Amino acid sequence: MRCDFCGYEFREEEGISGCRNCPVGAKCKLVKCPRCNYEIPLEPGWIKKLRKLWGPKG
Amino acid sequence: MSLFRKKSSCHTPLADAPCGARKVALVGNPNVGKSVLFNALTGAYVTVSNYPGTSVEVARGTAVIGGESFEIIDTPGMYSLLPITEEERVARRILLEDSPDMVIHVVDARNLERMLAMTMQLVEAGLPVILVVNIMDEAERLGIAIDIPLLAKRLGIPVIGAAVARKRGLFEIRESISCFKRSAHTLPDYSRRLENDIAEITGLFQSRFTLSPKAVALLLLQRDQEMMDLVLEAEGEGFAAVEAKIREKIYARRESFHLDLSLERRKITEKLLDGVFRVPDERKITLSEKLSRWAVRPLTGVPLLFIVLYYGLYQFVGVFGAGTMVDFLEKKVFEGYFNPWITGIVKDAIPWPVLQELFVGEYGVITLGLRYAVGIIMPIVATFFLFFSVLEDSGYFPRLALLVDRLFKKIGLTGRAVIPMVLGFGCDTMATMVTRTLETVRERIIATLLLALAIPCSAQLGVIMALLSKAPGALLIWSICLLFIFLLVGLLAARIIPGETPMFYMELPPLRLPQLSNILTKTYSRMQWYFMEIMPLFILASVLLWIGKITYFFDRMAAWSAPVMASIGLPREAAVAFIFGFFRRDYGAAGLYDLQTKGLLNPRQLTVAAVTLTLFIPCIAQFLIIKKERGLKVALAIGLFVSFFAFGSGYLLNKLLATAGIL
User: Fold this and answer.
1) What is the pLDDT of residue A58?
2) With an 8 Å Cβ cutoff, is A53 touching chain B?
3) CB neighbours (10 Å) of residue B600?
4) B534, B313, B316, B536: which is closest to B430 by C-alpha?
5) Per the CB < 8 Å rule, is A27 touching B416?
6) I want to staple B361 with a disulfide (CB 3.0 to 4.6 A). Which of B142, B357, B378, B617 is the partner?
7) Does the predicted TM-score (pTM) go above 0.80?
8) Span(s) in chain B for CATH 3.40.50.300
């Protein structure tokens, strides 16, 4: 993933781990940039699948 | 839910790496492609865990290269061996404590001049460095030429040109890891004076350190406390002499040591890169670079901001989203077709008027809750999130942070506070949580207060724009009031709350043309999250409002608050919108929308009501988060202050507008 605020590239898991103290919990579809804490929406699962199907291979 | 492919505790050793596997640490500035290289080397099987005693995460994985297993460590971003942030401290600790057999320094080819200073520090520290000059493809596109073999010769270490995102250079990197042999570096010396100072200090060392004596001496001269503690532990009684010498040298060079060292390193970098790094004589400045410069300079940045706000927020969200789309959905679809149809069905199916009211009455779950959520709020948040995603994907927000940094410093904040402020326009509750990332408690309190007071959330903003755009001048007065109050309260808070404003700097990612797929994906994700959150709340609020109606609670509240409403020049019915507003800010604004469509508010009352409601007490969710983040006392203080301030401002504004005869 790429942070839309600071441009930092990070793994989705790193972003999700930044949400562990948040009371909103799993309902929220945003993850935090590990560098600046800006919140970025997670790509929905079905879009990921579409990308895998139609996106560039390799 | 499993967050990681494989999660370990803080001290779990990497299961896959065989005991004694050689360690390779990837280091470098943030955003140079370390993680991409890490993934390319390790494949899918990695372990992510917190570095002991910190919240900083470190990823470790295994790579099999030339038949040998290597443990690969992806360190947090660092700019120098002298750490400032927790991430940099962790990265340096890995170098000191894990004693990697190889350190791969990944740099951005486009910024080689700036990043080579850290390569020098790593080499000077006696670490086994391999330099990966990454993002070569972009550098070449800009016309930059880098003589990799000459740089390798000058540094005395392996240097590889790469574009790891495109898999270029990966073979060479693997080969370098597999065949790595330590060699003596060939870095030029510092000035005679500095070398003498270093020699005087290193001459007193009795112990051996992981870093070279020269690097340790330089860190001590830069007052690195962690290094000081390490030297104290290693030297024992001998530390007194080292400490005295350090003090003597620091005192002698007290005016300019950091500057002198930076200048010396810069000179060495220039010498190393002479003939190695060539940029085209007259590089064409792209439109994106021009726009980027305009966006951060006050003279051009402020007008640009107003253009963005006018077309994006006013024209697109306000006029199109909150005007055209709401008119269509709310008036034509809901009022014209859906509500009469559903009311007929419910009335046929349910014989009891009280229960009919619950679903299709004045505050009915369908006729009010669903209509507000789908007919009014949805088109507004959809257009707002679309506009927000365009700005976000273009890289405008970090430029906005730099633009407002000077102004924010006057109100006790820095450009970093743009993150919660910008997020507040999406949802103030989430933004309040983000204030915890601000450096000082003072900043967090000021930002929380300003979010609760003067930053309307997306839906509230949209509905208010829809309302006020119908009365000429009202939107301008509302905007001026909000901006004035934001700055006034910020200035006062910065004076009252003691403390200093920290420094702020950030590296700007490139400004780019937003990608349609990114914009649509982000808008969709935000909308989905928004509806998952608001629909149950809107239904709950409708049920509570229905109970309020059948128990005559609202009539009593309206009667009780009639003098307050009258003091700010509003009809007693407006009290209901303020009660709605406590459930959700956007619900309150939608309540005003209803009053206006019923013709109960003139332009002056509308403006006063919009200003008061925007400033009014945060919604329940935001209040609970303020309590969680800042404690009950601060939450109550902010709640009380905001309530009195909102009605006080409404009172003054009403008097001012009535006296001046405006609106």
Assistant:
1) 38
2) no
3) 16
4) B534
5) no
6) B357
7) no
8) 22-178
